[in-house]
Amino acid sequence: MKTARESVPLISLKDFGGSPFLEHGIFVEAFEECVSIRQKRMEVHRHDYVELFLLEGRGSVLIDFGRCPLSGRSLVTIGQGRVHAWQASRMTGLYISFTQEFFDGAAPPPSALFDYPFLFGGELSSVIHLQPKQGLQAQGLFRDIRCEFEKHEKLAVEMIRHQLRVLMVHLSRLFAATSPAPFAAVGLVRRFRQAVERSFRAMKSVPDYARVLGVTTSHLNESLRLEIGLTAGDLIRERLLLEAKRLLLHSELTISEIAYELGFEDPSYFSRFIRRELKASPAEFRSRARQKYRKFLR
Fold first, then answer.
1. Which residues have CB under 8 Å from 101's CB, separation 6+?
2. Report field, pTM of the whole predicted structure over 0.85
3. Tell me, what's the pLDDT at 298?
4. How far from 233 is each of 249, 254, 267, CA to CA, in Å?
5. Contact yes or no for 171/96 (Cβ under 8 A)
């Protein structure tokens, strides 16, 4: 949900132009071309699709509240809704943009994208600094998808979807190898993530989520602990806090308005939540975060 006074542009995949593949929800392009002709994509924005980048050179990317310097060969993944900006005029490479609907095809919900936590932030990073041998297979997969995208051969959409799923499995292995956190959120964990993404503003009770998912609270928590090392309450608070930080930084809403936007009945409850999680008041966090963003964007 984008509020009327939120300052972060939401970019749609359709904004890329006239490629016949856009109606299917897929777009592939050289990163340097995007830097040259789509300058707004370097500024702070978010979008309603997923992006995967394989880049070379020196620069940096800001994803929500983490700035990551980039050098050598880097892999960057940005899930839908994540606020980000680039300083990457000296970087080259490829990027792939695709919608959830394209990735899932005819598969029923919940979306398979929720099997890949690195798209959404939280316990797994969104950036890998690749070693030379690591980058070779990823580079080949990116190039195969670009080649299929540019050739426009028969059944190209089906081929790209297949190649993209192979690429996502490969990326999962790379992230699993570079992170101490467990991976492979499947089944119940996937459905819980999707439920939280859909309902975190209105529903904050773990028993409520368990009831919606048709399981007990203890079973939900145990499944999450085994798969990702966190409880249901941890993930609900993490998602709520992320959206609160986004609104404090990027919107002109008052503290009270943000509290109501996120489903808090009393703004004082929201302030206590922020103080507990961030060790600062909402106003203090807003001031510090904006100073940090101004420094990055200079």
1. 25
2. no
3. 65
4. 24, 26, 21
5. no
